[in-house]
Amino acid sequence: xxxxxxxxxGLVQPGGSLKLSCSxxxxxxxxxxxxxxxxxxxxxxxxxxxxxxxxxTKYGDFMQGRFTISRxxxxxxxxxxxxxxxxxxxxxxxxxxxxxxRPVNRYWGQGTQVTVSS
Length: 118
Known about the structure:
By secondary structure, the protein is an all-beta fold. Helices cover 0% and strands 59% of the residues.
Protein backbone atom coordinates (compact mmCIF):
# COMPACT_ATOMS: atom_id res chain seq x y z
CA UNK A 1 0.00 0.00 0.00
CA UNK A 2 1.10 3.54 -0.76
CA UNK A 3 -0.01 6.48 1.33
CA UNK A 4 0.17 10.13 0.29
CA UNK A 5 -0.48 12.85 2.81
CA UNK A 6 -0.57 16.64 2.58
CA UNK A 7 -0.28 19.32 5.21
CA UNK A 8 0.07 23.05 5.49
CA UNK A 9 -3.33 24.30 4.36
CA GLY A 10 -5.39 26.80 6.28
CA LEU A 11 -6.77 30.31 6.33
CA VAL A 12 -4.56 32.98 4.80
CA GLN A 13 -5.11 36.68 4.19
CA PRO A 14 -4.97 38.00 0.64
CA GLY A 15 -1.40 38.77 -0.32
CA GLY A 16 -0.02 36.22 2.08
CA SER A 17 2.06 33.14 1.43
CA LEU A 18 1.70 29.49 2.25
CA LYS A 19 3.82 26.37 1.97
CA LEU A 20 2.12 23.05 1.43
CA SER A 21 3.95 19.82 2.14
CA CYS A 22 3.43 16.29 0.90
CA SER A 23 4.99 12.99 1.85
CA UNK A 24 4.75 9.45 0.51
CA UNK A 25 5.05 6.35 2.61
CA UNK A 26 4.36 2.66 2.30
CA UNK A 27 5.52 -0.24 0.20
CA UNK A 28 6.92 0.86 -3.15
CA UNK A 29 10.07 0.47 -5.24
CA UNK A 30 10.38 4.04 -6.46
CA UNK A 31 8.50 7.31 -7.02
CA UNK A 32 8.84 8.73 -10.51
CA UNK A 33 6.73 11.85 -10.18
CA UNK A 34 5.29 13.94 -7.39
CA UNK A 35 3.12 16.95 -7.92
CA UNK A 36 0.06 19.00 -7.16
CA UNK A 37 -3.41 19.59 -8.50
CA UNK A 38 -5.94 22.12 -7.31
CA UNK A 39 -9.72 21.94 -7.25
CA UNK A 40 -11.76 25.10 -6.83
CA UNK A 41 -15.44 24.86 -5.86
CA UNK A 42 -17.58 23.51 -8.67
CA UNK A 43 -14.65 22.74 -10.96
CA UNK A 44 -12.50 19.79 -11.92
CA UNK A 45 -8.99 19.30 -10.64
CA UNK A 46 -6.43 21.35 -12.48
CA UNK A 47 -2.74 20.56 -12.84
CA UNK A 48 -0.43 22.87 -10.93
CA UNK A 49 3.07 21.40 -11.12
CA UNK A 50 5.13 18.26 -10.80
CA UNK A 51 8.69 17.10 -10.43
CA UNK A 52 9.76 14.02 -12.38
CA UNK A 53 12.98 12.26 -11.49
CA UNK A 54 14.05 12.17 -15.13
CA UNK A 55 12.51 15.14 -16.90
CA UNK A 56 12.49 17.59 -14.03
CA THR A 57 9.94 20.26 -13.19
CA LYS A 58 6.81 21.18 -15.09
CA TYR A 59 4.31 23.90 -14.30
CA GLY A 60 0.73 24.28 -15.47
CA ASP A 61 -1.09 27.48 -16.24
CA PHE A 62 -2.83 27.75 -12.88
CA MET A 63 -1.24 30.40 -10.67
CA GLN A 64 1.63 30.69 -13.08
CA GLY A 65 4.50 32.63 -11.57
CA ARG A 66 3.18 32.67 -8.04
CA PHE A 67 4.33 29.33 -6.79
CA THR A 68 7.37 27.08 -6.62
CA ILE A 69 7.45 23.33 -6.37
CA SER A 70 10.31 21.41 -4.86
CA ARG A 71 10.93 17.78 -4.19
CA UNK A 72 13.33 15.62 -2.22
CA UNK A 73 12.83 11.90 -2.93
CA UNK A 74 9.52 11.11 -1.24
CA UNK A 75 8.55 14.59 -0.10
CA UNK A 76 7.35 17.54 -2.10
CA UNK A 77 6.35 21.06 -1.25
CA UNK A 78 4.46 23.85 -2.94
CA UNK A 79 5.31 27.42 -2.01
CA UNK A 80 2.46 29.77 -2.93
CA UNK A 81 2.95 33.53 -2.87
CA UNK A 82 0.69 36.55 -3.22
CA UNK A 83 -2.41 34.53 -2.52
CA UNK A 84 -5.74 35.76 -3.89
CA UNK A 85 -9.31 34.90 -2.83
CA UNK A 86 -9.74 32.97 -6.08
CA UNK A 87 -6.95 30.65 -4.95
CA UNK A 88 -9.33 29.25 -2.36
CA UNK A 89 -9.40 25.56 -3.17
CA UNK A 90 -8.47 22.08 -2.11
CA UNK A 91 -4.89 21.26 -3.06
CA UNK A 92 -4.13 17.63 -3.83
CA UNK A 93 -0.74 15.98 -3.89
CA UNK A 94 -0.06 12.93 -6.02
CA UNK A 95 2.73 10.43 -6.40
CA UNK A 96 3.39 8.03 -9.26
CA UNK A 97 4.74 4.96 -7.53
CA UNK A 98 6.32 1.82 -8.89
CA UNK A 99 5.67 -1.32 -6.90
CA UNK A 100 7.48 -4.60 -7.53
CA UNK A 101 5.70 -6.59 -10.20
CA ARG A 102 3.17 -3.86 -10.93
CA PRO A 103 2.94 -1.01 -13.43
CA VAL A 104 3.33 2.55 -12.22
CA ASN A 105 0.20 3.84 -10.51
CA ARG A 106 -0.89 7.27 -9.36
CA TYR A 107 -1.75 7.72 -5.72
CA TRP A 108 -3.55 10.73 -4.29
CA GLY A 109 -3.61 12.43 -0.96
CA GLN A 110 -6.82 13.40 0.75
CA GLY A 111 -6.31 17.07 -0.08
CA THR A 112 -5.64 20.11 2.05
CA GLN A 113 -7.96 23.10 2.13
CA VAL A 114 -6.57 26.57 1.46
CA THR A 115 -8.88 29.49 2.16
CA VAL A 116 -7.83 33.02 1.20
CA SER A 117 -9.91 35.59 2.98
CA SER A 118 -9.59 38.70 5.06
